[in-house]
Amino acid sequence: MSVAAPLALRPGDGSRLRALTRSSQAAAGLAQRARIVLLAAEGMPNAAIGRQVGVSTPTVLAWRNRYDAGGIDALADLGRSGRPSVVDEVAIVVRTVSDDGRPPADLGVTHWSARLLADQMRREGTPVSFATVSRVWRKWGLQPHRSETFKFSTDPQLEARIRDVVGLYLNPPAGAVVVSVDEKSQVQALDRTAPILPLRPGLAERRTHDYVRNGTTTLFAALEVATGRVSADACFDRHSNVEFLAFLKQVAKAHPRVQLHVVVDNYATHNHPNVKAWLARHPRITMHFTPTSCSWLNMVEIFFGIITRQAIRRGTFTSVPDLTAAIRAFIDGYNQRCKPFAWTKTADQILTKANREKTSDTGH
To answer: Which of 100, 109, 121, 135 has the most crowded CB, counting CB atoms within 10 A?
Structure first.
């Protein structure tokens, strides 16, 4: 029986073919064809190649000829036309987003499901299955079951305030201290109606779904931007201008004899006449306000998220003093391990995102 002559590889193809056989990202079929060509180049008989690779001899002959005619590029899969689609995908997309994506009022629902839309389109004379609707939704990135929120600021000083606050974060004044101040109101002292079942192998910590409210407190905190430390904190029963001014004095005492820049949001107590009068008597302290609806610019909000997740949400507290003691213990420990938060967005980047192009034709 005659044996086929060794396949002649084009210059440089040997290393490329070996790389394909070792690649973890190349398609399995392409790697298999590369092995066929390499074995053929070594002079192995076609039948032996088929047994080693796991294909028939005609398949080996086919890929030898394909490589001989077109090189490595000829080893790729050819495009297949397949059966043309009979589903009008555009019609499904248009029907999904028409009327702002809301189903007809007589259906009594707020958003489409795949089955509901398929039934509706069949009634309108376009027979489609719910599976087809689901496939089209996935292809076009439509998710009627999801709803997100958005908010924008109407502050006339939006740009000036963003540049002011972000400038303090990125380029703080030399020799000055920048602190981010806010209050976390309505922190609840919740206790469960039964003891918590602790963590066990294969079992998460478990607690009753019902609870007992034992009062609330308001946490005031001042985050030192340069170090990430909470340089001042206090818990009050209320959060009026009286409490805010008392806390502001505590912040000033924690940072004596330096220029102090305090970042706050636009809560009414921060602009109270009593606060303004006190600031006028202490010119070394300057208040910087975030724009309306932009309290996320206030860096202390990051700390509030941390203390909520790590100390408050899963805590159990029999009284408000118990809650405040837990808050104080967490802050003491946090200051031992804290690191400054790195602000990365410039004012221009934030403003570019805030001034988005119009993406909806709704009338509001």
So the answer is: 121
